[in-house]
């Protein structure tokens, strides 16, 4: 089954404790992205990747890191999480090109206390 | 920074009513997409419009892309409770990996 898998689904952590949210897709898609979703703000892009070893900042990259060492995986790293990073996070993947469909994971609800 | 503005942000209507959701920008987009998101799930694609002036129909849903490719609308005829959800427009511009989303429209259809 074609899917984007995120882990964990829920995470509560403390300020400053490094964490990684994993994302894996089995559709051989070139493009992968991370978004955060906050009430009234829609989905805001954090980072995106157009292929292995090619990443670029989205609209809200501060406080986040990503890497794309393999085509299928695109982990999101929070080196020193802060309470303002409490949010719902989505990973998405799509084939290369301008008008392609984005497939989303089920989301990771992160709370930083 | 390219922005997509959706209106209204919230809509609560009775079953059987019609509604229109708007997605506007000052920028030109290569294409606009509409997604629907249900609680606890990621967004799922409804449609992609590519050509200025294009109209696409999906059962009771009609999507339109503005002539200048800066705006789009979603019209639902005879809304049903199953249409309840968050509707998001999204746009791409140029051959980049950026897919930009609007703030979303939360639709509630009451029986």
Describe the 3D structure:
Chain A has no helices and eleven strands. Chain A is an all-beta fold. In chain A, the strands form two sheets. In chain A, strands 2, 4, 5, 6, 9, 10 and 11 form a seven-stranded mixed sheet that branches. Chain A has a four-stranded antiparallel sheet with strand order 1-3-8-7, with no helix packed on it. Chain B has 111 residues and is an all-beta fold. Helix content of chain B is 0%, strand content 52%. Chain B is built from no helices and eleven strands. In chain B, the strands form two sheets. In chain B, strands 2, 4, 5, 9, 10 and 11 form a six-stranded mixed sheet that branches. Chain B has a five-stranded antiparallel sheet with strand order 1-3-8-7-6, with no helix packed on it. The termini of chain B are far apart. The model of chain B has no long low-confidence stretch (mean pLDDT 93). At the A-B interface, β4, β5, β9 and β10 of A face β4, β5, β9 and β10 of B.
Q: What are the segments of chain A in which pLDDT stays under 50 over at least 5 consecutive residues? A: none
State the end-to-end distance of chain B. 40 Å
Helical fraction of chain A equals under 10%
Helix fraction of chain B?
Answer: under 10%
- Spell out the helices and strands of chain B N to C: EEEEEEEEEEE
Structural class of chain B: mainly beta
Low-confidence stretches of chain B: none
Q: Specify which chain pair forms the largest interface.
A: A-B, 29 and 29 residues
Q: Structural class of the helices, strands and pairings of chain A? A: mainly beta
Biggest β-sheet of chain A, characterized?
7 strands, mixed
Task: Please state the CA-atom Rg of chain B, rounded to the nearest Å.
Answer: 13 Å
